[in-house]
Amino acid sequence: GKTTLLNAFSLFIKPGMKIVTVEDIPELNLPHVNWVQLTVRPGYTVGTKAGEIELFDLVKLSLRYRPDYLIVGEIRGSEAFVLFQAMATGHGGLSTIHAETLDYAIKRLTSPPMNIPPTYMKLMNIFAHVQKVTTRTKIGAVKVTRRVTIIQEVADYDDYRLVVKWNPANDTHEVYLDNSILLKDLSEKLAISVEELKSEILKRAEVLKWLRLKGILDVWDVSKYIFQYYYDPNGVYSQASKELAEIEAK
């Protein structure tokens, strides 16, 4: 579920941004034109490292491309430090890590072999936890699936803010945007109010709901509408709002 979620997040990167992905096995599939895909290579001979290209080497190499976003499939070792250094110098970064909680993820990041300084933790911004859970269908049948169970913002080392939490009782997500510090930061940078940002989030959520109800679920089809929204947000939202009202009226 981690890679699937990472791929879904990547769809929302603005068209035209330069993206470099680094993976052990090529799994990410992005619709962006300006995308460079790097994959590790094993050694030429079993038992030797001759010709081997490791994740750490590729993450270092990726910075030569001067990406707007650097996406690493999964961080486990010293490549994590290079990723955080890239984020510290202005590059956007996305990755996955095995961890039960945000607190445990940060403990892993700050311990060997990653050894990322605690002062770098606030560069992480957002932590989304995807988990295998049990839900029930409308007829009461048990279903094993995956859900994003929690989303937290990282204000600093050991300072987290809950912004989204999954409610297992009714299989919905509870949103706490008033806790968000990123919205406040964006408000200052973009010179618009927090309320305007919240309104924009609701509009985008409505567009995604419209796509889901219309059965537009293929990654390439969804990306077309996301890219179109960047260029003509009012036009796409107007169409979505109108058709969504018609769908819900039936």
TrEMBL record:
<dbReference type="InterPro" id="IPR050921">
    <property type="entry name" value="T4SS_GSP_E_ATPase"/>
</dbReference>
<dbReference type="InterPro" id="IPR027417">
    <property type="entry name" value="P-loop_NTPase"/>
</dbReference>
<feature type="domain" description="Bacterial type II secretion system protein E">
    <location>
        <begin position="1"/>
        <end position="111"/>
    </location>
</feature>
<dbReference type="InterPro" id="IPR001482">
    <property type="entry name" value="T2SS/T4SS_dom"/>
</dbReference>
<dbReference type="Pfam" id="PF00437">
    <property type="entry name" value="T2SSE"/>
</dbReference>
<dbReference type="GO" id="GO:0016301">
    <property type="term" value="F:kinase activity"/>
</dbReference>
<keyword id="KW-0808">Transferase</keyword>
<comment type="similarity">
    <text>Belongs to the GSP E family.</text>
</comment>
<dbReference type="GO" id="GO:0016887">
    <property type="term" value="F:ATP hydrolysis activity"/>
</dbReference>
<keyword id="KW-0418">Kinase</keyword>
<protein>
    <submittedName>
        <fullName>Protein kinase</fullName>
    </submittedName>
</protein>
